[in-house]
């Protein structure tokens, strides 16, 4: 039985630093509603970190937090229109159904667009500071990820198949179904 897992220890320490940074900034600057988006942005960027070259790594790390902010922006805009909000939830559900069983990042994107939609509509309407805080948290998480890897001797290789491959496979599969044969 392994008592000490070095890789897990590194992952936990990097997570604490990644999420602790925006929380620490909020404590120093005064806790504001943007902390919700910053903390979620940091957590989701950490979860989306699949290693790889810097720009590809950033793309994976930004995908789901951007979906959260996009969903929140749409939810905020739809707040005066409950019928529109309900229609949008069905569209997000359709997107979720189309990517279910596919690439994990696309599935997470669908989930967090939906969560963001509800957050923006009913919980924490999106303000400019919220989007900026989430973006800053993602950039900080990316820099921490790169520096952590470099301090350990080099960049981790990409740990997943590219999302573009999953989309190509999905589109090919949809076209083969009779309902999508004419697309």
List keywords for this structure.
single chain; 7 helices
Descriptive notes:
This protein has 183 residues and is an all-alpha fold. It has one domain. The protein contains seven helices and no strands. The model is unreliable at 174-183 (pLDDT under 50).
Strand content: under 5%
How many β-strand stretches?
Answer: 0
> What integer value in Å does the Rg equal?
18 Å
Percent helix, as a range, is over 70%
For the report, how would you describe the main beta sheet? none
Cα(first) to Cα(last) distance is 54 Å
**Mean model confidence by pLDDT:** 87
Structural class: mainly alpha
Low-pLDDT segments, ≥5 res = 174-183
Q: What does the overall shape look like?
A: globular
Number of alpha- plus pi-helical segments: 7
Count of spatially separate domains = 1
Order of helices and strands: HHHHHHH
Explain the layout of strands and helices.
Layout: H1 6-29, H2 34-48, H3 54-78, H4 82-99, H5 104-123, H6 128-151, H7 163-176
Helix pairs in contact: 1-2, 1-6, 2-3, 2-6, 3-5, 3-6, 4-5
Nutshell version of this structure?
By secondary structure, the chain is mostly helical. The protein has seven helices and no strands.
């Amino acid at each position: 039985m392994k008592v000490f897992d070095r890789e897990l220890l590194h992952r936990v320490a990097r997570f604490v630093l990644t999420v602790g940074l925006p929380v620490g900034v909020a404590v120093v600057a005064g806790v504001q509603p943007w902390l919700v988006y910053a903390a979620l942005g940091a957590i989701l960027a950490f979860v989306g970190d699949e290693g790889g070259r810097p720009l590809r790594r950033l793309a994976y790390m930004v995908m789901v937090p951007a979906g959260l902010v996009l969903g929140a922006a749409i939810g905020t805009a739809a707040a005066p229109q409950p019928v529109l909000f309900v229609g949008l939830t069905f569209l997000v559900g359709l997107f979720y159904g189309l990517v279910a069983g596919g690439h994990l990042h696309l599935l997470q994107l669908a989930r967090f667009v939906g969560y963001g939609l509800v957050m923006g509509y009913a919980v924490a309407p999106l303000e400019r500071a919220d989007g900026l805080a989430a973006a800053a948290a993602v950039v900080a998480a990316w820099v921490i990820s790169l520096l952590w890897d470099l301090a350990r001797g080099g960049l981790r290789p990409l740990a997943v198949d590219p999302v573009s491959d999953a989309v190509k496979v999905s589109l090919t599969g949809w076209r083969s179904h009779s309902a999508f044969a004419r697309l």
